[in-house]
Design a protein that fits this description.
Elements: H1 5-19, H2 25-34, H3 40-51, E1 58-60, H4 61-70, H5 78-88, E2 95-97, H6 98-105, H7 111-124, E3 131-132, H8 134-137, H9 147-150, H10 156-165, E4 176-177, H11 178-190, H12 195-206
Helix pairs in contact: 1-2, 2-3, 3-4, 3-11, 7-11, 7-12
Length: 211
């Protein structure tokens, strides 16, 4: 599995502990998202995209607060949210670019980790269209050891679709974009301090070439 249950619990536990001490609004938001697990940041990104009715990829303060509250981020005070919004509303026009906002929301990763995530996505995206689907996974991800496949309860496609859904946090549309894949692994990376362990995990999970 791309992120083990144990790893996901570690992400949540470490984030909750750190959140109790954090005072910076951006850090508090990062930790609050990650306290939801590896898909926390991706889930917030999805929430903002659903709210972006006109597709201009920007949100005003009212939408910003609504998105955070609807996602259940009660850890942030109204003052925290106002500080965050003003921090990203650089030109003072009352809106923020949520792509830029989400980029800042992701905890920093070094180039080596980013390269590994990029390699994994490229390997999965066989068609090269920037989206991973069940078709892409055939022949790349084996379901032969999945218990429900072994007992005949699920078909290969059902197993592959369930695997895709593990990267998704809300609409389960069977499509994973590069952004969603990155957001997922940002959460995983945040719980792994050791670069060597992260490297090993990624190479074993996706059978990447060793360097």
């Amino acid at each position: 599995m791309a992120c083990t249950q144990r790893t996901n619990k570690e992400i949540q536990m470490k984030s909750r502990q750190a959140l109790q001490k954090a005072t910076d609004p951006l850090e508090r938001l990062q930790l609050a998202c990650m306290s939801r697990g590896a898909t926390g940041i991706k889930g917030l990104a999805r929430k903002f995209k659903i709210m972006d009715d006109d597709g201009n990829r920007s949100i005003d303060f009212k939408e910003f607060v609504k998105g955070l509250r609807e996602y259940g981020l009660t850890e942030l005070s109204n003052e925290n949210m106002k500080e965050l919004f003003e921090q990203f509303d650089k030109n003072g026009n009352g809106t923020i670019d949520f792509d830029e906002f989400l980029e800042k929301l992701r905890p920093p990763m070094n180039k080596h980790r980013k390269d590994l995530i990029f390699q994994a996505f490229q390997k999965l995206d066989k068609t090269g269209d920037g989206v991973i689907t069940v078709e892409d996974l055939r022949g790349v991800y084996s379901v032969k050891k999945h218990p429900k496949y072994l007992n005949g309860e699920w078909t290969e496609d059902q197993c592959l679709r369930t695997f895709l859904d593990s990267f998704d946090s809300q609409d389960k549309d069977g499509k994973i974009t590069k952004e969603e894949f990155d957001n997922y692994y940002v959460g995983v990376s945040a719980s792994i301090d050791n670069d060597i362990y992260f490297d090993l995990m990624m190479r074993q999970a996706w059978r990447l070439d060793s360097k």
